Amino acid sequence: MARTLWIGTSWKMTKTIQEARTFAEALSDASIPEHVQPFVLPAHTSLAAVRDALPAGSPVLLGTQNAHWAAEGAGTGEISMRMAADAGATLVEMGHSERREQFGETDEAVARKARAAVDAGLVPLICVGEPAGVRDAGAAEEFVTGQYASALGMLHADEVKRTLVAYEPVWAIGESGRAATAAEVAPVVEALRREAERRGGGTGCRALLYGGSVSTRNAAGLLADVPVDGLFVGRSAWDVSGFLSLLQIAGEHLSGAGATPPA
Ligand code: PGA
Fold this sequence. Notes:
Strand order of the largest sheet: 1-2-3-4-5-6-7-8
Oligomer: single chain
Order of helices and strands: EHEHEHEHHEHHHEHEHEH
Bound molecules: 2-phosphoglycolic acid
Distance between the termini: 12 Å
Structural class: alpha/beta
Radius of gyration: 17 Å
C-alpha cells in the first residue's frame, strides 16, 4: 500500500464566505499530487460554502476547528458534531493550544470531544503540544504523550486507529512562534507514535502530523527528517498558492521517497 502524506490547513479566524469560496475554487482547479491527502478546516460560517464550491468527488477533506461533545442543547456559541457533519465536515479539530489557552479547553473536554466525534462518524484531529517552559524543563515528551493519552481515554483501540494526531509545540505556533528544528520535533513524534501503537495496536493512529510555523521553507526538511505522516499548517497555507506549494512539496517528497510505506 502506498504511503499517504496529509497536508492540511486550519484557517483559524480568517476568511469571509466569499474569501473561502475563492480559495476552494482555486483549489478545485489545481491538480493534487498522488498520495497527498489535502484537508481544510474553515471557520464554521464558511464550511458549507467551501463544501459546495468543491466539485463532487474532490479529494479535499473538510473539517471544523471545534465542535461540542454534547449531541445538542444548551451550548451557546457552539456547534454539535452532527451539525459539523451536516455542514460538510469529515474531520474535527480539538485540543489546539489556542483553544486550550483562550477558552479553557481541558484534556477531559478533548477526550469527550474525541468520543463524540467518533460516535458521529467523524475523524478526531487531536492537537497536542508543550509550552516553552515544559520543553526547557526537559519534559516535552512526557507532557505531550500525557495529553495524548488523556485525549484517547474514552476510545477503544479500533477507534484510536481512525484518529489523527497533530504535534504542535505551543512555542512554535503563530506570529510569535519560532520554527522548530527537525531535531526538536523528531523525539516527541517518536514518543507519540509509540503511544499511538500502544493504544491503537498495530500501526497506531491513522496519521501523525506536525504543525507550528510550517512553511514552504521548512516543509521539505521536516518531511525528510521527522517520521511524520504529514503537516498541519496555519499562516503559510491561508493563501491558496501557499497551500498548493505545500501539496507539491509533499508530492515531491513521496516521489523522491519512492512512495514506500512508513517503517
Ligand atoms: P502556524 O499555525 O502555521 O501559523 O504557526 C499552526 C497551527 O496553529 O496549527
